[in-house]
Amino acid sequence: MAEPPAKRVRRRNETQTNPGPSTAQDSQAAATQQLPADGVRDDQQTIQSCNRQPSQQEPTPQPPQPRPGETQTNPGPSTAPTQQLPADGVRDDQQMTQSGSRQPSQQEPTQQPQPQLQPRPDNVKRALEADANERAEKRKAEATVLKDQGNQAFNKGDYTRAVKLYTQGLESLKDFVVLYTNRAQAYNKLEKFTEAMEDCRTALQLEPKKVKALVHLGKAQQGLKDYEAAVRTYKEILKIDEKYEKMVADNVKRAQEADASERAEKRKAEATVLKDQGNQAFNKGDYIRAIKLYTQGLERLKDFVVLYTNRAQAYNKLEKFTEAMEDCRTALQLEPNNVKALLHLGKAQQGLKDYEAAVTTYQEILKIDKKYKRMVAGGSAVFRPNART
């Protein structure tokens, strides 16, 4: 029959009060005692727990020690405010001391940003001016080297290369006046007078009293046959400095001579055209038209001797002997040994019945050239109208 529970408790208490030697059976029974499946201790264990002596203290549970190599973590939630670490992850002692001793009522002042230093406007201006001056000096040095190289090419007569080098110099420094005047001089040598004039005018815009620019401008104007403009340009030099008087006088003289020669050539060309047209009319027997064309030719060039002799011959054909004699005498004043003038003069004298004068005139021809002896001996001029000059 099973022992009642109350009796078992009394007997166990007695045993604890007067402990006796434990048997192996009791030790085994205590070791093998387990909790029920539902986690509730049985009545015997509960009674034993209640009858435990107060002097016996249960050991305080110790937290599990970390294994070697593991980091100990705090499993519970932390109520302390999170403290920010500096960038390197370690707070220095001063920060920790200040943090610990800071009064809660005191508020830390907000740190103001340091003001940025701004450069002064006058310093910036001086820096920019210094940089601009340095760049200008560098460009001028490059342009000067190209100018010297261009001068060497010019002195060797290589005007095309000189122009190229002067142009490169102007690309480095576009307001370098001497490069414009030097290039204008090279253009004049190449007879590129329009380009030379443009360079001279640019130089005069940069430096209005540049004498070399005026000299080369005058020469370019001469090259373009504008002699009057060239003379005016040369005279402008005297307004700048009278020491150039001789140079100006020489240039003006050359310009005027060239102008006169140019005009004479032009007039002679026009007169020659009219002479040829007059000869065509004469050969066709149209003496009146021939005289008209010869006269127009003489209006272009009044000292064109052949026009006088040809018109005299046409006058003789029209039996205008007086007019013919006048033209022959004018031709002989311009050219005393002109044989054709003497021939047509003798013919006119014959037409006027002045035979003695005609013989005297024909004999004058023999003094010039005896190949006309046969013609003179006959007492009359043998002249072929178709043999025109």
From TrEMBL:
TPR repeats, residue ranges: 177-210, 211-244, 305-338, 339-372
UniProt region (Disordered), positions on chain: 1-122
Electron transport in keyword set: no
UniProt cross-references to InterPro entries, sorted A to Z: TPR-like_helical_dom_sf (IPR011990), TPR_rpt (IPR019734), TTC12 (IPR043195)
The keyword Transport is assigned to this record: no
Low complexity: compositionally biased ranges: 22-34, 103-121
Keyword entries, A-Z: TPR repeat
One Gene Ontology term from the biological process aspect of the record: axonemal dynein complex assembly
Annotated Pfam families: TPR_1, TPR_8
UniProt-listed Gene3D superfamilies: Tetratricopeptide repeat domain
Domain of life: Eukaryota
Compositionally biased tracts (Polar residues): 73-85
Protein's recorded name: Uncharacterized protein
Protein's organism: Patiria miniata
